[in-house]
Structures are given as C-alpha cells and as structure tokens.
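Objective 1.3, modelling of assemblies. Example input:
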Amino acid sequence: MQRIGVFVCHCGTNIAATVDVKKVAETLLQEPGVVYATDYQYMCSEAGQNMIKDAIKAQNLTGVVICSCSPRMHEATFRKAVAAVGMNPYMLEVANIREQCSWIHKNIEEATEKAIILGRAAVAKVHLNAPLIAGQTPVTKRALVIGGGIAGIQCALDIADAGYQVDIVEKEPTVGGKMTKIDKTFPTLDCSSCILTPKMVDVAQNENIKIYSYSEVESVKGFVGNFTVGIKRKARYVKEDICTGCGLCTEKCPQKKVPNDYNLGLDTKRAIYIPFAQAVPKVATIDADYCTMLKTGKCGVCSKICTAGAIDYTQQDEHLEEQYGAIVVATGYNPIKLDAFDEFAYSQSPDVVTSLEFERLMSASGPNGGHLVRPSDHKEPKTIVFVQCVGSRSTVECGKPYCSKICCMYTCKHAMLCREKYPDTEVYVFYIDVRTPGKNYDEFYRRAVEEYDVHYIKGMVGKVCPEGDKLKVQASDLLTNEQLHIDADMVVLAAAIEADKSARPLATLLTASMDTNDFFTEAHAKLRPVESPTAGVFLAGCAQGPKDIPETVTQAGACASKVIGLLAKDHLVGNPCVAHSDEMMCNGCSTCANVCPYGAITYETKDFSRRKDGTLMRRVASVNPAVCQGCGCCTVACPSGAMDLYGFSTKQIMSEVDAICK
Amino acid sequence: MQVEEKEFKPTIVAFCCNWCSYAGADLSGTNRLQYPANVKIIRIPCSCRLNPMFILRAFQRGADGVILCGCHPGDCHYTTGNYYARRRMTLLFSMLDFLGIEKERTRVEWVSAAEGQKFAETMNDFVATVTKLGENHRLEDLRCKKQ
Amino acid sequence: MVYSYYPGCTLKSKAVDLDMGARKAAEALGITMVEIPEWQCCGGVYPMAKDEVATKLSSVRALEYAKEQGQDLLTLCSACHHVLKRVNNDMANDAEIRDKVNRYMALEEPYAGETKVIHYLEMLRDVVGFDKIKEAVKNPLTDRKIGAFYGCLLLRPSKTMQFDNPENPSIIEDFITALGATPVKYPLRNECCGGYITMENKDLAKAKVANIVNSAKDAGCDALITACPLCMYNLTQNNDAADLPVYYFTELLCEALGIGKED
Amino acid sequence: MDNMEISKEIQRISGVNPRKCMRCGKCSGTCPAYDQMEYHPHQFVNLALSGKIDKLMESKSIYTCLSCFACVERCPRGVEPANIIEAVRLWKIRQQNQNHLVADQIPAMLDEEIPQQALVSAFRKYKK
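Predicted structure (tokens):
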C-alpha cells in the first residue's frame, strides 16, 4: 500500500476562489492510502516545494498528488522537488484543478466536487505508479551526411568545425550536387561555382570529414546515438587513392558518345570521365554502361595511358559498415520528367528545354562555353519564351500539387541574364503568380521588368508547336484578355522539382516518415523544422521540401547545430514512459511492430525452458527504450495484452476511469 | 407523494491527447471559456493510446458519454497515431451502437493546442447531446451502481 | 478474334468507304466483326452534363449487347468511339449515372461498364500488331508522305480515352509506317478541325481547317488520313483550296493489303 | 432563381467545382476557338463561380466552343472548363423556346457531302 500525500494549491485566488480547497484536502484525506493532505497558497513557490519535501520526509510518503495548475505548467517543477528528497519523480501525479476546473466553472459547489474527483483519479493513478528510471545510452560521436550537395556540404562543414567527425555519402562521383550545374545565383548574380567550389575544397581538406563519393547507403540499423550504416562503394574501376586526376585518360578514351550527365545530356563525354574540372574528389570514373573494355574485354586505352596505374577493370563494389550517432538526410531534388507535358513539345523539339538545361546552356562550363545558342541549329535565339509552373501547383496526375518555390526567381534571373548578354533578344515570361518573398527578391524581379524590359505576362502557355525553325507559342494574356501567338526561337520550361528518387527507399531504411510527395516530414512544422520524427535523423535542403540556396544553407546550419547538440552528449537520457512487453504473454505476432512509427520494436527468439536447454523457444517482442517515443499505439494493437506503457499503463488509466465514473 | 425530479447531469469522460487537445483544454481554461463541470479529462500520451477497453470500462462504471480528442489528421505528434485511433473508434462505435449505446454518446473530435474555443464548444455541444439522451444503462455493471 | 462491331450512323451512308474498307481488311487479317443488330445512333456528342441520362442510353444498349455476347466492342468512327468509351467510363465509375441508367433500362443484370471498348486502330496495334500488318502488306505505299490527322475525339480527355499520348501521339504514324509509307509528323495533328460547328459557324471551321492543312503541307504531307467522318468532311469540304487529299485510314489499309474497292 | 442559385445548378449539372481553378489561364491559352469567343474558357469558370451566368447565357460564346476538350486535357487543376460551357448552354436551351437550332433552319445548311454525324451532333448540342 502506498503512503500518499495530497497537496492542494490555492494559486492565490485562481483556484481558491471557485474551489473550496480545504474541503478538497479534507475529502481526499479520506481516500485509501492517503496519509497526509494539506493546502497552501502557492505550491510552486519555494515554501510550497519545501512543504512537500518536508511532508515526504516526515510522513514517509511513497507517492504524491498535487492538485494545482496544468501538469504542462509545473509537473517538471514538482518532480524535481520530490526527487531532491529521494523520491522517484514518477511517483508524483498532478490533478489539473485550475485550467480544467476553477477557471472554467463558476459554481463553487460544482467546481469543488469536480476538483475532488480529479484528485481522486490522480490518487488512484499514483497507487499504481512505479518508480521509473530513464535509460541511458552512449552516443557515437560521428555523424553521417547522406548527400553531398550544398546542404550536405554546409552541414558537414559546420559539424566538423565543432570538432566532430563527419562522413559524407554521395551517390555521384563528385560532391557539389545541383549547385555545380547552376551558372549564376539569385538575387546577387554571383557565379555559383565561385561560391561553391571553395566549400568543396574545404570539405575535401577538412580532416574531420571523409567523403564516400560514388557510394550509397544500403542498410541502417540501430537508433539515435548508435546507428550502424551499411555503405556500398560502387566500383569506379579507378583506384581512388592512386588516381591523380590528371585527366589524360578522359581525353584519350576512344568511346566518345556517352551522354554527359553534367550537361544534362546536351553534349557528350568519354566513357572514362571526371565530371568537371573542380570535381571533388578529382578522380576519374569509368561508366560501365559504355566502356568498351568492360563490355567486350577489348580496348584498355586508359589503362595503357595512365602513368599512375590507377585503372583497375576488375574492381568490385565494396561494402562497408560504419557507426554513427546522428544521420543527416540531404538527398536533394531533381526537376520532374516532362514526358507528360508534351503540349509544350519538350520531346518534339530540342529547342524546348528545362530551366536547368538552360542553366547549362548559359554557363561558361556548359556545352557551348556560355554562348547561348539553340541546341538544334546553334543559332542565337532572338525570342525566348519562359513558361512558369510546368508541373508545379498541378493537381492532375502528372503534376505536383505544391509550389516548387525556386522557379519564379531563377526564371527571373534567366530572363534578366538573357537581356543583359543579348540585348536584342525579346524575352517573355508567362506566369500564374510571381512569388518573390525573400530579401531583395521582389526588387530583383522588378528590376527584370523595369530595367531589363522582360515581358511578364499573366497567363499560361497552352500549346507549343514546332513549325519550321520556329516554335509557335499559343498563350493567354489574362490581363488584356487576349490570346497571344508568339513565334519563339526557344522555349524554357520551369519544371517542377521533386524529391530525389533515392529518398523514398532511404526513408524506409531510416524509418523516417515522408509526406505524399516524398519529401521528408519534419518533427514539427514550425518548432522542429530540421529534425525528423525519428530520433537521431535530421533534415537539410530539398529533401524536406523545395527551397533555394540561401534557405538550404540556413537549414543545413540549423541541422548541424542540432547534430552537434546530440553529439556533444556522452549519454542520452530517454523518456522512461515507454512501452514494454510482457514476454510471458507475447505471442510474437508482429502486430505491435507493424503499427510502431519508429521501428522501436524488434523480435528475438528466446529460450523459455526452465533448464535453458533450448526445448522451449519462442519469438517475443522487445522494445528498444531508446527509440520508443511512448505513443502507446502498440499497447492497443497488441491482441494478447502483452504490451503496456510505463507511466500510462492500462491499469492506471482504468483506475482513473473508475475514479471519475464512481 | 411527489418525487422531486433532480436535474440530470451526465457523467462524461474525455480522453485528451497530451500534445494537442489537453493543451487545447488548458487554453480554454486560460481564456475562461466555460463548459459543464461534468466533463472530466484523462490525459493520454496520444489518441492511439486509447484502448477501446477504457471506453467499455467507462460505460460499465456508469459513464453517460465518452469523447476522444486528438490531433488533427496529419498533425499527430507521433505521425500516425490519430489515424489508428480514428479507425479503432470507428469500429468500436459501430459495435457500441449495435449494443444499444447510441452513436451520439461517443465521439471523436480533433482539437489542436490552439483551439481552446473549439474545445469548449465541443464539450458544451457534447454535454448537451448526452443530456438530451438521458442516462445510459447499457453495459452498466449494476454492482458498480451509485447508491 | 470476334468483335461486336458498332458502325454508327455516318458509316452506313456518307462514310461507307471507312466501313467497307475496315470490314474487308479485318477479314484479310483474320478478325471477325459482327455488327450489333439494331444498334442506335450514339448521338455524336458525348453528353457531359451529369444529369443527362436519356442521351447515354443508346450507347449503353450497345455496350450491354457486347457484354452479353462476351465480346469487346469494336468502333471505327472517332465520335462513336469517344461517346461509347466515355459513357462506358461513366457506367463503371459514376455511381449516380450508373444507378439511374440501370433503373431506366431494367436489365436482368445491371450494367456496370464491363465491356471493353476498343477502336479499330487500337485493335490493329494491340491485337493484330503492326508488325503482322507489315508482313501482310502486298502493295507497300512506298514514297508516299502521309500525315496522320488525329483530331480531338480519339485522344482527349486522355484520362478516359487512354488511346495514346494526347500531345504527341504515334499510333497512326506507326500504322503508316507499317503500310510502307512515310509518316509525316506535323504540329497541328491533334488540333481541333472545328467539325462540330461546321453547320453553325462555317467561318470558324474553315479557319481551323486552313491552319491544319497549311501545317500539314508545310511539313511535307502529300495526303492526310483520318478515322473521323466529320474531320473528313471538314478537311475536304471546308478547305477552299482543296489542295490536300484526305483518306480514311482504312482506304490506305486496303490499298496496301491489295484489296480493291470492288472486291 | 437568382444568379447564385443558377450558379449552384450549373456546378451540379457540370460536375465541376470552379473553386479548384487557380486562374492560370491555360484553358484560354489552349482554346482553338478563342478569337471567336466573347467570353473565354477561364471566364466561364470564374463567372460560373461568381454567379454571373446571365452574361454567359446571352453570349454567343456558348455556341462557339468546339468541344475539343483541349482545355479539359491541359488544365493543371482538373477543372474541366468545357463541362461548364456545356452546362451553361444546356441551362439556356432547356428553357422554353430557347433552342439554338430549329429544324426549319436545317435545309439551308445542308450540302451533298455533309455527314449525318454533323446533323445529329448539332441537334444534340443546340436543341432540347
């Protein structure tokens, strides 16, 4: 039998004005197990807390009920107080007689009765409380960043800067991501490479950072502070530690007709290649789909020419396992495929390009060295039509229901750059809305209109027809209420952006949740925007939703600070109110594991025979308290009643129900 | 002999999710929005912690109505808990209906931490509905009857 | 393969060429077309309104007949195909329309869109196979540059019609290739010819036709082929210049297969 | 019936929820009959929403729509403007003496080659 003390707070007059606190204390003293009951002006005050402490010692209390304000307010305060005199903090319950009683009722009699009932329910619960001790787990002081774009790079640099080790896993042969493909950045128009490549170099030279390029995450085990991650290093057929990146092989390889991914297939590369001059690591990679040697066994030019002897045609995929305390997801985005948008003739004319392709066409490192010409006939375009929201804000099957966020600004940038470099070009931008919230963003847009004379037209292009060497653009101008027919030389489509295809399988590996658009869900949309609901998994960049470079960098920094906060701890103290399974009742059906959003439940086959001789083996559930967040979904799903939740056990809640309905 | 008719005050149990509705109830308190005293709130970590047994127990012990408040769909603190709760309650409520406990005596309502107003309105409405239905005797365990 | 065949009004009169050609070619390709007895006109326009039920009944009768026969329903005229396919889609997916129609029809077993509606061209592509047609061709139409005119009704709305890529279709081009001719893709091949308003607004119809014909000629077409009698009428009668021959696709099919008009 | 009631009826008949429209104007950008229309597809959607159906019913635009479904096909929000146009047309011609086409007019429109389909569909579209 517990020895329970009840403490009723007046909260000045907040409670005492409508609740007869004396009567509450007196009545609750009659409850079985209650050996002490009192009331006081302000229980949360120093004196009030001392009163509780003294009573625990004097009365030898084993449990405490505080009738006061909401537990959301002072539960932690009171728990600390009882813990100070050696009582387990989870032996305390708070009856909410302020927010949920005195403040909402006027009739003293009614309110007092309700307060007594709420107090009774709390007493009934305390009777079933058991001391809980929060578990501790050690933290592996190393972070994994998945994705080596600007989000991953920034996050890794910030974590490394705080003195922790970081590994970057990047699926491409080089880090840098989409930003390497971008020519200029809005709203300052500084060159993307110029601001990115120094960071890439920093990443390569930082001794706390290790880059696994051309690699993928293939398995994730463990939980916050203790992840074990399997990494596949894809065979690049070049020894990374020996290759000097001289690039000779990439000039001599006889297989010249390999679509160049870096330029989005707008030109070709060799079968052995270094993606671009500033690649990190600057190491050649053989494209196995095109290499004659790998396909037919005949050629070997690169091997002969390589003075370092770095080529290794027999290289195999390598699989390794590493330990991490935290994982950052920075898998980024891709423009959607435009196959389903053939009204814009994307697949019918090479002169209809996506904005990212246009970026390459404008870039000094692009296929034409930055001289803007049409892909079809290499003539300078004189009329360019930009179409915004291609696939964005679209609720039909082929589109994306969200705003891709970056298109308004980059289209504006493209339009402006066209007019600046080629002043005799007519530039039209068809928009539904121009969305430019951001520092100096709207000013940037207005400059395009006012200073660069870009024709912004509210309306949408309905159809693009390639006819002769022109692209016939049919569109509406909603403000003048006209249908426009423009003979364009190029059409640039602002394709919606979507989460990278690798994100969905990765989310499954991480048991991190995603929304219907395959963007990772944050733990709280406003207050925990860089954490995944899965403890120890953090989000940076477009993996979480469309965002531009400044926002991505901001988020990556925030993400790093969260990771540092985690890695700075030697141990993690868990929430002790977690689920636990009664092995004797569990029938190993997996129902609980299926409903668990965190993957906290695993199964083990245990020997239940008395002599432990393996004659009675059963599969039983086991909850990892470090991963369980204590929602209790499994406790209800469990068909045999084996699952229960500490702090909110079935019996405790039942006893509260009983107390209330009595 | 005339029996003085006592005003019927139903016993209502409200299960509230710690992250949203419980805070919503606190907010309606902070804003001094009144609702009847016969509503007693039990705090649970998530609407998915609500075992159907708790509701059966409540009716057995003489409750006249039971309401579950959770986070709005899509807003669950634990990502998916409220979807499970919604499915479970749909099944339970239709079974209770079959057993003669009117559908109006049970309810699931989504109340966020910011919806103090909605919490009070919901409770007022629910109490009024249950009051109209009168006492519940179905499932009641006579041994638990109030003297 | 045996199909229930729905010819429709125009194929029995003004577009006999389309109908006869299709029948003869089918015979040559081992396809049996059984004309539905006492078929009723589909109405020529799909009634979009949700509260239009009576206007959908004739289509349902044909669909229901094919269901009873256990056959797919084969169509030839673009408009009939459009109407039948969309009504069938309503019967399968729109509970309100399905219930109303079934109550009205009082069938022994309610109809719920079970019949598969297939266009002759789809049949050639998916059942016979264009490669088989290529093998069966006796007089390849070598050196002829032919443009496909799709129009609207076969392609749109693509969600229901599921005919081909609505913006960049290729089925008729593949058909032309199979016959040994050279398909010419021109931009306006899926543009509306204005057929529905040809009686109401001649000028608009003519303007639309002129655009299409010019687009086809610019791309180098010697002739156009179509599956729609209304497009046929419009492209020939409303083309004042009369400078681009238009054929039904079945006419060329017969020619390539070596089937004469008299056979 | 007042305009807002008619507007609701139009939405019921067409099965279209004009609120889904985000006013991008793609329907009007795609319409092949645009230049002959007084009110354009996007305006049909907006006017049906705001209850100004009377303007549409008096306009020749309702008979100019070619029913080519290009607007339906390309609308990024799945609004189906053509269905609205049809519903407005039906609302008009379902009233007494409002048939747009009467049988007496037909002979003048005929020529040797005109297919039956043209007649049938004209009646279906313009007459009740």
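Chains C and B do not touch (no CB pair under 8 Å).
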